[in-house]
Amino acid sequence: MDESAGRKGGGAGAQDETLRSDALPEHVTCPFCGGEDTEQFAVFGSALSVSQYYCRPCRTVFEYMKWR
Amino acid sequence: MSEVPRRPSSVEPRTRRAVLPLLLVLASACGGTGAGGSGSAASAASGAASPPDTVRVTDPGLYPEGVEFDAARGRFLLSSLSHGTVTAVDDGGATTTLVDDTAVASSVGLQVAGDRLLVAASDVRAVFDSTVGGSAALGIYDLASGRRLHLVELGSLLPDARHFANDVAVDADGNAYITDSLSPVIYRVTPDGKASIFVRDTLLGGRGFGMNGIDYDPRGFLLVAMDQQRALYRIPIAAPDSLARVQLGEPLAADGMVLRPGGQLVAVAATFPGGGPREEELVELASDDGWHSARIAARAPLDASVSPTTVALRDGAAYVIQAHLSGMGQAEPVQTFEIVRVPLSAGSATGG
Questions:
Q1: Which residues in chain A (1-60) have CB-CB distances under 8 A to chain B?
Q2: Across the interface, do A48 and B181 touch by the CB < 8 Å criterion?
Q3: What is the value of pTM for the model shown?
Q4: In angstroms, rounded to a whole number, what is the distance separating the alpha carbons of residues B146 and B189?
Q5: Picking from A59-68, B8-17, B62-71, B90-99, which range would have the lowest pLDDT averaged per residue?
Q6: A1–B103: do the CB atoms touch at under 8 Å?
């Protein structure tokens, strides 16, 4: 086991800045209005396999399946 | 745009919800299900025998993806995606750090096995950061003291691949089976800590997040949840290459799950009623043919906004952990997490 792998404060646990995922698109299509004026809201949602985006026009948060 | 396009397959709308109410929900960090925590704590403090409806755990930034119940000591155990620890929690919400292994970045799935605690150990950054290759390991600890017995490296069995050890199950001989959500392999670790690849199959992977929860049926097979396929697989211990998809009446993306002694599978799962938007539910699956097929025998809605991730059984009752995953990495960490008893609908099989 790599003893240096991760550990507290090394990444996900750090709270000094809002996390963004480089593995996700910057914008996705809002399922409600069809617009693209969206942004990542949270790297996780109801489960590890989903992220949350925010639609500016709708002012709505929606979930997005990673890697689809 | 003259017409709103149909919902893309990549998007999982749940409910139309303004951001402010969602933030308020997260900030309140209480989830609102079940009875009030104070009442439960008072009940526990007064020595009442009845199990709590809700156990509130105040531990900022814990993000517990896994929960187990240590029946011998009457305590819940929580993993931590952000701290890598295992925390013991009594019915009043008082916490004790049981495992604090500096080599573990994220603890995920938990499994009590006799006098041992097995922990799927990984690094949650791999789930959202493609520059992080991740890791997969199995931590084996003394259940009473939290002392490390083994920390078994698994990712090196499949080099040049990305890894996220997610969940662990144990068979009748004490062998542990660990799912990897980022590689299509299940690892096996013997009781003395020897690791191997139990099965590798493209059916168990795909682009992105693959396997999730795993459990062992004493009739000699594993049940494994596949996230993106929204499916459940049956994998015989004696012939893992003959794995097969369990025929379900509806798509089901299970997360954490546990088998009752009577053979029913209780799972936190995303469901898609009527082919519609994703919903989070606690479901109880039953099978009459040794898990070649199964049906949902009972179900209960869960609050998706608080990230219900897995379930533990306590005297037959199902307790769901609310992990509040959307709070990870936000400026203010979530302060309080909840373990909530979730009654399944009347008439459900109770085999436990």
A1: 1-3, 5-8, 10-15, 17-19, 21-24, 28-35, 41-52, 54, 58-60
A2: yes
A3: 0.85
A4: 19
A5: B8-17
A6: yes
